[in-house]
Every structure is written in C-alpha cells, then in structure tokens.
C-alpha cells in the first residue's frame, strides 16, 4: 500500500498520534494522502466506522470512497466520508433533540429560504429577499444569532435585516426546518453547549481527516476542534494558494490558527507534483508568485517539459467556442488524446457555458455541464422532493404548500390563505392546523373536507413509506403514488411541448429508480448521511435526499467533455484543459467598486485580486498534459458588445512568446490534409483495406 507514496507522503500517512497538517501545492498528492491514510488507519486496527473523512463536495466524497474501496475493499463502506454539511445532518439527526429539533427535521433549499424571507420581511421582491439571505448567511457563518447581528449592525439597513433574521428564525423553528448554514451552526452549538453529546462524539471518533482545508470557514473550524477534542487526532490537508471561497466566508486564518491552537502540530510539506508537465506547472507558479506567501512552498514535476502552454486569440465568444472545439479535434487527430472525458473547458461564471454547449452540440461532441443546474434543481424533481419532505416532516410548511398544489387538487388559493392565517394565529404548522377542530369557523365545510382528505392521504403515505423496504417494494410504491396524484398528466398538461414533458417524465422515472436502488442498499450514500449497505425504508431514504445535489454515480463513467466553472473544478484533473474567457473583467472578475472608487488600490480590491489569482492558479493546475488559455477581443456585457483586453494573468504566466500562440483551425486543417494525403497514398499502393 505504501508503494504508491513518496517519503513525505508516507510520513503524513504513518503519523497517527496527534494533529497533522499537510500543506502543499496543487497536484502534490494531498488527497491521495487522505485515502491512503484511511486504509492505513484500518490496517493498524482503527475500526472503519470510527474514521471520519470530510470532503468539499458530495461528489468528492463518492470518489474518495471508491478509491478507498480500491485499497482496502469492502470495509471502506463503513468509513464515514462526507461533507461538513452531511456531517451536520448526522449530528442533528442523532442528537438534535437536545436543541428542540425533531429527528425528522427538514432541510430547506435556497428557494424555500427566499420565499420564507419574502414572507418574514413583507416583500414580494425576490432580489431584496436574496440580499437578506446573503447577509444572514454571512452572519450565521460568523456564528452570530439575530440579536448579536443587530447589536453589531453598522447601519439602519443592517438593523432591519437583523430583525428580519429574527422573524426568519422563528419560522424555521415552527417548521422544524433548518437551512444550509444551520447544518454547521447548530451542530456547533450542540457540541459546545452539551458536554455529554460532545464526549460521546469525541469518544466515537478515532481519526478525522479533512481535505481542502483551506476552504473551511470559522464555524467549520470550531466544529472540527470540538469533534477531535484535546487529543487532536486529525489530519488536515490543504493549499493556501487554492483558497477560492473567501466570498462565502472561508478564511485562511484557519490555516494560521492550526499551529497556534496545536503546539504539537506535525507539518508535512509535499513538493513533487505528479499531475502536470513542467511547462504547465511553471505557468501556474508564475501566476501565483505575486501573492503574499503564508508558508514558503516549492513545487516541481518530473513529467518532463511537455507541450507549451497555448494562448488562443479570438475575435468574440462564438469564435472562441469554435476554436476550442477545433483544438479538441486536433488533439484527438494527432493522437494526444482519445477519450472525450480527457477534455475540460473551464470558465469563471455559469452563464459562459451556453456558447460552448452550442458549439459542442453542433460538432456532435458529447459533454456534461458540471457545477451548473443540478438534477435536484429541476422543477419536477423538486416537486417530488417536496412530497418526500412532507412525509418525513409534516410541519414543513414550504413542502406542504408545494405538495398540496402540485398537481392541483381543487384546493384554492383562498382556502390556503385562510388556513395560513388560522395557523399563524394559533402558532401551528399548516398540517397541524388542518386537523384542528375549530378550523370550521374560518373555512366552509367543503374546503375543510378537501383539506382533511389531503391530510389523511399524506398520513397514509407516510405510514406506508416507513414500512416500504427494498428496491422492488419501493419501486412499486413510488409508481402507485405517482399514478394516484396524477403526476404524469400534470406534466403533460402544464408543458406546452410534448417533448419537454416527456423528458421531464423521464427525469421523474430516473429519480424514482434511483430512490428505489437506495432502498435496496445498492448505492452508497454519496452524501455520507448513512452508509450501510443494508435495505433501507423509503422514509429513511427520503430523509437524506435534501442534501444531495447530484446523482453522481451516473456521471462517473461517462465519456464526455466536461464544462465546468473554475470553482467546481477544484481537486479534479484532466489531461487537456482549456481555460476560456481570460479577459479583464471576467478573470480577474470586475474589481473596481461600483461606488466610483475605480482604480483605487484599497485593501478590499487587493484581496479580491489575490483571490482571483488563486482561482486562475486552480484552473491552470487542473491540466495534466496540455493547457490552452483563450481570450476574446470583444465580449458581451449584458446586451452590449464591448472591447476586451487579455487577462493580466496571461502576461503573468510569462510564457515563451515565440511558441505560445496558435490557430487550432489551421492546425486541424493541416492535420486533415496530411491524413487525406496518407490515405490517398495507401489507396494508390493498394495497401488499403479489402485489397487482395
Ligand atoms: P489538488 O491540490 O488539486 O487537490 P492534490 O494535492 O490533492 O491536488 P492529488 O489529486 O492527490 O493531489 O494527486 C494528483 C495526481 O497525482 C493524482 O493523479 C494522483 O494519483 C497522483 N499522485 C499523487 N501522489 C503520487 C505518487 N506518490 N506517485 C504517483 N502518482 C501520485
Ligand atoms: Mg486534492
């Protein structure tokens, strides 16, 4: 097992007594250290279920589980590999009752949060609600509650937001619901304020490993500290140069705090990069070099100089997409790459994907967009999830409202409004209110009858979902339920195009099938909320759904080009990477403040530039064998087309001017001509196929 590791990596893997930090640049095998350490821990007798590995995404968790399985086999199933958020769910489901949270609490997604905030703040404007959402989220990540936020508010605007936060929190309590930030904040509170729970978890955990440590925020760090306790048996791996989530509250202070909080911290540095050629690595090092150094680092590669990094000049975005496609084709034509999955196109912002999608489709090249709209964001899947949430937690009002109206069942807006007024008057959830004996005083008997019918139906579903176990039964149950509520018909009725309705229905079936497989224990839970391979009840499976954002197991083996944002590309690698849209204003993103401080080198701008530079560094270091960066002379900005200049990062890469530029279309043309010549020659000499 140690054979695939260099000496420094082995040192990190073998050190188990206390806290250990692996601090190293991109592609140096940090993630590999974690997977091997999991295996090593098990080998030395630590029970698999007492090992906890924390990753940045569900997908990374699933991948790590696969790798660990490759090293140690079935036992890897028992290791808890999950994100901080999934860990939070585990903590709260097991012990959240001390905080007054029922085990079947719901997890709200951002849309639910927006609509609750609209309600709490008395507005119909989604943009305003999202601004509050943003502010509240930052406060929560800083560990502030509504009262504390109000106390430290800098202006009236913040004061108002803090008061809305208070109302928002009341509603979450009433709905037995939590938002994503609570999944970190509440477990932290749980462990901090309840010694018994804390001791139980500390005793149960043998070793904690954290990947992408540089992108943890302050509350996550506190949570980690409480989990590992004084013995501090943990391994964190990270790279300060790849910290790209500052805008979401991640802080490099967490790296600085480690040696202070743990004087016995063992620090291991890795210097060899196993991913990229020297040409690529040099460009990466040059770009990151101007940033201040938290820790000195050097990185070298033994993979040889490799292909020079290319700069592709383009007129506009369509032209850029065309050239990127031509480049892929020419790399395939000259035999440098053969599978579509060897290619990735990386960009700053989601909306940039569209033009590349069109070009790829036109060229009939298969692709997937990762980090964009996920399966679980689709309206039809969210409809179904609302129902599932309602079975699990009857008090979940947002889920209640969505289920009772999708598909429509003749319960009108006025009825629901009156029910809402009634419920809030008596501080009941909508579901509780529905069965209240005095409901008849505010609603006509017919409406009460329909509500009762719905309520009984939900109770019945819940009762049966609890008893439905295994893939077969789950599949049958789900099919029957969809038929009962008339969901297929609902899709065809509400969609103008039949084709679209059909594709949405396919998604529904795929979703049900996937749920059923989970009930049968055939799929590992990527979210890590539960990891046994035994049969599960449909209700148990439904509990974990809200946390998943991808049906990752379907994505894994697809032989397709990846389109991804730079943020979502973290930790991944591809043989051939194309970094597109490298123009000022996009990468680095617009740096000047809107309030006219243009060009002024204030502290905030400087820090943002540093984070942008790290983002560029992350992008460059995803490439294994070839890298192209492209920019356009003109770009769309809203509805306008404006002149653009190449990103300063291109100059900072300090590429050798003579070799860098290329026109992939010319190259492809030449390759095709050469190929045609060869086959013509072959045909002429009679060496072609079929000659005898
Ligand atoms: P990032 O900073 O991008 O997250 P990382 O430091 O986590 O990168 P890994 O993803 O673990 O790096 O490793 C990068 C690549 O190098 C992987 O393909 C991995 O399998 C390979 N690798 C790591 N260590 C070794 C080694 N000792 N021998 C051979 N290959 C290695
Ligand atoms: Mg990694």
From TrEMBL:
Supply the InterPro entries for this chain. Answer: DExx_box_DNA_helicase_dom_sf (IPR013986), DNA_helicase_UvrD-like_C (IPR014017), DNA_helicase_UvrD/REP (IPR000212), Helicase_Rep (IPR005752), P-loop_NTPase (IPR027417), UvrD-like_ATP-bd (IPR014016)
Kindly list the positions annotated as binding ATP: 24-31, 275
Write out the entry's keywords from A to Z.
ATP-binding, DNA replication, DNA-binding, Helicase, Hydrolase, Isomerase, Nucleotide-binding
Q: Which GO terms describe its biological process?
A: DNA replication; recombinational repair
CDD domains with a match to the protein in the record: DEXQc_UvrD (cd17932)
Query: Which Pfam family is an annotated match for this chain, by its short name?
Result: UvrD_C
Give its E.C. classification number. 5.6.2.4
Q: Which domain of life is it from?
A: Bacteria
User: Record's PANTHER family?
Assistant: ATP-DEPENDENT DNA HELICASE REP (PTHR11070:SF64), UVRD / RECB / PCRA DNA HELICASE FAMILY MEMBER (PTHR11070)
What's the name of the protein? ATP-dependent DNA helicase Rep
């Amino acid at each position: 097992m140690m054979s695939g590791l260099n000496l420094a990596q082995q040192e990190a893997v073998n050190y188990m007594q206390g806290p250990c930090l692996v601090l190293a640049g991109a592609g140096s095998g940090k993630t590999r250290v974690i997977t091997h350490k999991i295996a090593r821990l098990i080998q030395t007798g630590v029970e698999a279920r007492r090992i906890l590995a924390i990753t940045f995404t569900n997908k990374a968790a699933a991948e790590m589980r696969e790798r660990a399985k490759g090293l140690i086999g079935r036992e890897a199933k028992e290791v808890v590999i999950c994100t901080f958020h999934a860990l939070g769910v585990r903590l709260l489901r097991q012990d959240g009752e001390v905080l007054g949270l029922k085990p079947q609490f719901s997890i709200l997604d951002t849309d639910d949060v927006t609509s609750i905030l609209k309600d709490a703040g008395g507005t119909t404007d989604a943009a305003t609600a999202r601004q509050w959402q943003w502010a509240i989220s930052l406060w929560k990540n800083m560990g502030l509650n509504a009262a504390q936020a109000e106390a430290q508010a800098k202006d009236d605007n913040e004061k108002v937001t803090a008061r809305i936060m208070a109302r928002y929190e009341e509603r979450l309590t009433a709905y037995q619901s939590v938002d994503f930030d609570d999944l970190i904040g509440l477990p932290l509170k749980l462990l901090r304020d309840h010694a018994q729970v804390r001791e139980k978890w500390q005793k149960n955990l043998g070793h904690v490993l954290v990947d992408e440590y540089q992108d943890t925020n302050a509350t996550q760090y506190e949570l980690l500290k409480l989990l590992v306790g004084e013995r501090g048996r943990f391994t964190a791996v990270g790279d300060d140069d790849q910290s790209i989530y500052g805008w979401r509250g991640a802080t490099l202070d967490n790296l600085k705090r480690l040696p202070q909080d743990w004087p016995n911290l063992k620090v291991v540095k890795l210097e060899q990069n196993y991913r990229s050629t020297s040409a690529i690595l040099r460009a990466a090092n040059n770009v990151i070099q101007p940033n201040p150094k938290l820790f000195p680092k050097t990185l070298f590669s033994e993979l040889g100089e490799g292909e020079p990094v290319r700069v592709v000049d383009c007129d506009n975005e369509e032209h850029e997409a065309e050239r990127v496609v031509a480049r892929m084709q020419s790399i395939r034509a000259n035999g440098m790459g053969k599978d579509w999955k060897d290619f990735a196109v990386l960009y700053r912002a989601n909306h940039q994907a569209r033009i590349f999608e069109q070009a790829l489709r036109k060229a009939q090249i298969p692709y997937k967009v990762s980090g964009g709209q996920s399966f679980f964001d689709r309206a039809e899947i969210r409809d179904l999830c609302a129902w599932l949430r309602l079975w699990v937690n009857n008090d979940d009002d947002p889920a209640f409202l969505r289920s009772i109206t999708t598909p429509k069942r003749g319960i009108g807006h006025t009825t629901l409004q009156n029910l809402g007024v009634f419920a809030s008057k008596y501080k009941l959830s909508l579901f509780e209110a529905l069965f209240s004996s005095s409901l008849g005083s505010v609603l006509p008997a017919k409406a009460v009858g329909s509500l009762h019918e719905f309520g009984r139906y939900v109770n019945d579903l819940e009762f049966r979902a609890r008893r439905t176990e295994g893939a077969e039964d789950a599949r049958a149950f789900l099919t029957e339920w969809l038929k009962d509520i008339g969901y297929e018909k609902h899709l065809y009725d509400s969609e103008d195009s039949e084709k679209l309705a059909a594709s949405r229905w396919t998604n529904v079936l795929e979703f049900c099938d996937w749920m059923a497989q989970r009930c049968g224990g055939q799929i590992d839970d990527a979210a890590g909320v539960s990891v046994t391979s035994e049969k599960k009840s449909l209700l148990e499976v439904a509990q974990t759904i809200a946390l998943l954002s991808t049906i990752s197991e379907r994505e894994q083996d697809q032989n397709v080009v990846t389109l991804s944002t730079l943020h979502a590309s973290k930790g991944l690698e591809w043989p051939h990477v194309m970094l597109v849209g490298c123009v000022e204003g996009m990468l680095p993103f617009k740096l000047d403040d809107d309030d006219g401080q243009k060009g002024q080198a204030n502290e905030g701008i400087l820090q943002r530039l540093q984070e942008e530079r790290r983002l560029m560094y992350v992008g460059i270091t995803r490439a294994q064998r070839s890298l192209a960066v492209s920019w356009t002379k003109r770009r769309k900005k809203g509805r306008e087309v404006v002149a653009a200049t190449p990103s300063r990062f291109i100059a900072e890469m300090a590429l050798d001017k003579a070799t860098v530029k290329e026109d992939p279309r010319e190259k492809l043309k030449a390759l095709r001509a050469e190929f045609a010549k060869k086959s013509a020659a072959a045909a002429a000499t009679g060496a072609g196929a079929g000659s005898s």
